[in-house]
User: Fold this.
Amino acid sequence: MAILEVEGLRAYYGKAQILQGINFGIEEGETFTILGPNGAGKTTLIKSILGLVKTEGGIKFKGEDITGLKTHERIARGVAVCPEGRKLFPNLSIEDNLKMGALGRDGDDTLEMVYTLFPRLRELRNHIAKRASGGEQQMVAIGRALMSNPSLLLFDEPSMGLAPIIVKNIKDSLLKMKNEMDVSILMVEQNVKMALDLADKVAVLVKGRFVKGGDRGSLGEVEKLYFEI
Assistant:
């Protein structure tokens, strides 16, 4: 069953059209990664699904047309985002940042799950977020998104600005999450290895259009095309 269906999606900033008619679907438990250079429209796609930019076309979540819903209504239905740049509350503790993702409910069980996924955060739970390293802050951002128990998790370039060893640690944690948790993932990335290692399906976005895509059997072909862009 498709958890997300996008049809003819066009997105605009003012009169400037960024997405040129995007079509794709994500099945339950599936990871769909989108590669693309700067300015391709990757972040705009994430914002479109969240209802943060003007769009035309159709977006269905769990079979429901959500194109007319406000952002908080989409989130309440089970969509969460790990945003580009993490966007933590810098003067709150790591644990308080995580709890902000629980959307007002008792999230103790989910918090324990996040600490199991990221043991380092348990050690730092009382530390102020702004004093954490970039990799630790990225763990907090992912954990905060998980605190709402989402059905669909959106990632906007989770490897951005991180050292290669930290990227590997984040990737390993995401692979564990993918294998152990009931969540579908849409990830936009520029780190090809990370994106392809996590993908069930992949597409390349250039100037607001998909120029290539496919399932795991086509990953090599997609990777070759990406490096030719």
